Amino acid sequence: MDLIYFSTIIVAVLFASIAVFQVLLSLGYPLGEFTMGGYYKVLPKKLRSVSGISAIILIFMGIIFLKHANVLNGLDFLPTNILVWVITIFLGLSTIANLISQSKKERLAMTPLSSIAFLLCLLIALS
């Protein structure tokens, strides 16, 4: 298995794991201290819907990377080169936001996850 293929699988698993986390947030689990600055233990209803949408976006992001690395067939209409770069830049910005978060839990948990995802996505985008 080559490095890009393997990296893509890891990225997809990371995105799926974070999507599960977002679903738990949207269902009202007390995990809010790990996200959005840690202002809420349980997210308010408006932010719960944002978490639900985030979960869908994360799954789509994983699909984009799987398609880009030819792990998935089909979906040839997707402009994966552009989307991979957009996602990678977004992850870089997200990593910085997690790093400077006021929430210690967010800094300690989400910064490493977003950093790993960013570096792997950058590797894939540059390949």
Low-confidence stretches: none
- Major beta-sheet overview: none
The level of helicity is over 70%
Q: For the terminal residues, how far apart are their CA atoms?
A: 15 Å
Order of H and E elements: HHHH
List how many beta strands DSSP finds.
0
**Whole-number total of structural domains:** 1
Shape: globular
SS-derived structural category: mainly alpha
State which percent range the strand residues make up.
under 5%
Number of helices: 4
Computed Rg: 15 Å
Mean pLDDT: 93
Keywords:
about 130 residues, mainly alpha, about 70% helix
Task: Describe what this molecule looks like in 3D.
The chain crosses the membrane at residues 6-29, 50-70, 82-101, 108-126. Keywords: Membrane, Transmembrane, Transmembrane helix. With 127 residues, the chain is mainly alpha-helical. The chain has one domain. Helices cover 72% and strands 0% of the residues. Helix 1 runs antiparallel to helix 2 (45-68), helix 2 crosses helix 3 (80-99) and helix 3 runs antiparallel to helix 4 (104-126). It is globular. It starts with a helix and ends with a helix. The mean pLDDT is 93.
Secondary structure layout:
Layout: H1 3-26, H2 45-68, H3 80-99, H4 104-126
Helix pairs in contact: 1-2, 1-4, 2-3, 3-4
Keywords: Membrane, Transmembrane, Transmembrane helix
Transmembrane segments: 6-29, 50-70, 82-101, 108-126
